[in-house]
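Hi D.,

Good news: the full-assembly prediction came through. Inputs first.
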Amino acid sequence: MSEKTANGGAQSITGIMRCASDIPESALLPPKHHRWLKAFGGAPKRQVRKVPILVVGTSHTNAVSRALAKAPDSEIGVLRLRASMIPRPGRPNMEIYGALDPSVVISMIGGNQHLTLGLVEGPEPFDFECPQVAGIDRTRRIIPHAEVRAALFETFHKVLDRMRGLREAYRDKPMAHVSAPPPKSDPKMLANNLRAYHPGDDAEVAIVPRKINLKLHHLQNDILREFCAENQIDFIDPPPNTRDTSGFLQRQYWQRDAAHANKLYGDEILNSIRSYAGSVANAPNGPKTVAGVGTGSPGLQGRP
Amino acid sequence: MTTAHPYRGIAAYRHWQRAPGADNAAELDPQPHTKFTISPQDSIATAGSCFAQHVARHLKNSGFNALVTELAPAILPRDIASKFHYGLFTARFGNIYTARQLRQLVERAYGQFSPEATAWRRGDAYVDPFRPTICDFVSTDELSAERDRHLAAVRKMVETLDVFVFTLGLTEAWLDRDGTVFPVAPGVHGGAFDPERYTLKNFTVEETAEDLRATLDIIRRHNKTARTVLTVSPVPLMATALDRHVLVSTTYSKAVLRVAAQMVTDNDPLTDYFPSYEIITAPHCRGEYFGADARSVTQAGVDHVMRVFFKAYAGVEPAIGEKSTEEILSNGVEHRKKTENILEVICEEDLLRSDEPPQ
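Then the structure:
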């Protein structure tokens, strides 16, 4: 493996930018992903173009990239980090980041951690008390909020390392993190979608009750808000108009899988990003809270 | 002609100079015989002060059947679960320092005692006054539900254990106005100290022995054949609430516990005393089993204690074995990893879709 790869130089750039690295994409992919090489092999290499608003993230950037493909905006660029690559903890990849000089940095790193506990039923169905979502199913094991939080937090190390690296790379720039889209409410759609990942198993995939997934999504954002507050990063909540009355992602914003939102949702996120960028453009003392954008609450409550 | 006397012909272990250990501390074995044996199949419950955690861990890692009746949620990785006190003892009691605390625990489990105190505030959260360090709760409902679960686990322990190993730790405790005893003073980890309500109690030999007997009575009411091993923690007090040197309070406390344990075992064929305290503090060891803080017990000391324990009660060198409870925990973590893998594939596939025409 090349030194560049070891340094976390495994970024592919979607949307309006392409990777500046001279390493072929095929060299950066682990063997298990070779079946997807065709999708990357033909991508022309272009010079990195500096943009005022840089969006850096993983798969949830795709919704934004789709929206930009439909309605290009020369102010906004998207750098898509490959989820299967793990950079050195907390170290920014300056080979890529150093070539860019954004005015505003937007993180869309991670976002599916809530699904690791909230999508497919595990060996011990559980529920927990969540201040934002009423009701609890006492036929399931009730786990203290602090313990669920600790279990979920365990899935965040890579995400937080990458966010820390991004913050380190642009330490003097306004930066915000965009919440992942709210979960989807239809267990049948999710079960059908997930059946493809359980080949040879005709049994219906058991889906975690949607309300519990919603609780986990809130818990995820609590964790991220606190991390953001500790690292001078603002937090952008899902646009309120994208939620249904129960708090789930409205169907019109669904991507055709269990985890992601679509181009329409990307449009909404772009509006939030533009609003955030506008709010910080003339701020003398760094980021300000704007509508739909909040700073995190301090303290990692419940951590053991 | 030599004269017969009571010490002539006694076993070597009864004679200080002939008993192994003075020259080589590792040979010190102050438990030459026991009242009963323990087999690897026996369900062994553990409880007590912080030293008891060492006993529990050694049992788990040595192929013995360390009983765990309060299992961690499957979603919690093992190292995180232990931070929430899962698996440190048979149930998630936290440390039980005094015999009165143990007695009130089993009394609460069987509805014989209902303390006035139910929850302490700790910042924005609540803690259980009887185990304040195990977890912060977001509401009293959550705390109450978890306590019900805990007390059910205590009942299951009482009713299914074959052997109960209890390590006595302290005599000093803080009492509520209704007689409830707490493991730590109110205000130390939640709650607020009210001198009008809470009082210091330094238990006597008689009180400690009576509390132990009352506890064993309850256990045997539900489990006639339960065997008990009492030990005394060699760990000195961290602090004393009395206005005297902490070392003096330590010797009082350990002396009371040691005598009370003897009083209980002397007349009870199903209760034995195991000399953990003696092994660690023995002059043979010349203080080497205490760490740099002159308080914590070194791993070598714990190993010595457990070596003697296994030899005395099981007659075996323990083998390393995995426990079924740990397998249950592993299953939950495995499930999470499997879901993470699926999500990773979903993310990669969504990347491909981004190359498709926008919808």
